[in-house]
Amino acid sequence: MAASHSACAGTVSRFNRRVVLKRVALAAAFAMGCAGAHAQSYPDRTITLVVPFGPGGPTDSSARIIARALGAKLGQSVVVDNKAGGGGTVGPMAVVRAAPDGYTLLWGGTSSLAMGPGLYPKLGYDPVKSFAPIAQVVRAPHLFVGRPDLPARNLTELVALAKARPGKLTFGSAGAGSSTHLAGESFKATFGVDLLHIGYKSGAQAVADVLGKQIDLVFDAVPALAPSVQAGTLRAFGVTGVARSPLLPNVPTISEQLGQPFDAYSWFGLLAPAGTPAPVVSKIAATLESALKDPEVRGQLQSAGFEVLGSSPEAFADTIGKEAAKWTSLIKKLGLTSE
């Protein structure tokens, strides 16, 4: 009797497992069907593109070019929402808290995703896990310039001058922990020079003080500095990219002058909140890829000093992880923190 009861129990148990597995499979199929249907109808309303800096800068200008291009191809408005603060970390938090439906996207970059995690130990998001990367879109090197009256005509002479006067030459940036500050600190560490950092509230203020001969050197965006270099009021010492800038083709890179690998970029890309349906991410990625092939869009980005990239979501996730590790290591070595 006991054996019979045990056999019945086993049969019921197997039956229950089959029922449960069938229900799980049906639920999964239903979820996939819903995601697919969502992707087919997406977008059916306005999309918000969160930019973690204020209007007017290179982050904002590049985001607006992409917003217009995406909107035209998707048939819906893509509205830029500037959420500045926290060194570029306030905007990403707004995206993390948004519904993962593809209607709130992030224009994330070096400061928000690669430097923020090192500067803000209690940051409320993970640069990779909290988002669904869509594509790295553009990048731009910095330009290293100085006063034209410095007794150094090129970068080799500048390094020799800095080594002869340790801690005497000053370089300005857009503030402690900014991408231009960390580009300068990376330069110091790579080439063994001691430059005194002077932080400002903006890159424009730092540039103004180099022009006014209050400080000696500055790292800043190529488009912002190119007119002064061409006018002879600033001396260009090198570009921080792996290739020369089309805006200043006669200015060599730092690497080609000093014979050591060196690069420091500001880069930007498109991300959605983690959990956004894969078909929606794929649709945005495909639309973005198409937009970046448009000569007019590419021209606008290049005129603003950007190198147009485009990447797969997987490649962008890999870039974010590597860049975050690189800059967090330097930030820890310098003992920098914003908390």
Structure, explained:
The chain folds into two domains: 44-139 and 266-334, Bordetella uptake gene, domain 1 (D-Maltodextrin-Binding Protein, domain 2, 3-Layer(aba) Sandwich), CATH 3.40.190.150; 141-258, D-Maltodextrin-Binding Protein, domain 2 (3-Layer(aba) Sandwich). The longest helix has 40 residues, at 2-41. The protein has twelve helices and ten strands. Helices cover 49% and strands 18% of the residues. The protein has 339 residues and is an alpha/beta fold. It has helices at 2-41, 58-74, 90-96, 110-119, 155-164, 179-191, 203-211, 222-231, 254-258, 278-292, 295-303, 313-334; strands at residues 47-51, 78-82, 104-109, 131-146, 170-173, 196-199, 217-221, 235-239, 265-273, 307-308. The N and C termini lie far apart (71 Å). Strands 1, 2, 3, 4, 5, 6, 7, 8, 9 and 10 form a ten-stranded mixed beta sheet that branches. Helix 1 (2-41) runs parallel beside helix 10, helix 2 packs across helix 10 (278-292) and helix 4 crosses helix 12 (313-334). Belongs to the UPF0065 (bug) family. InterPro entries: BUG, Bug_dom1.
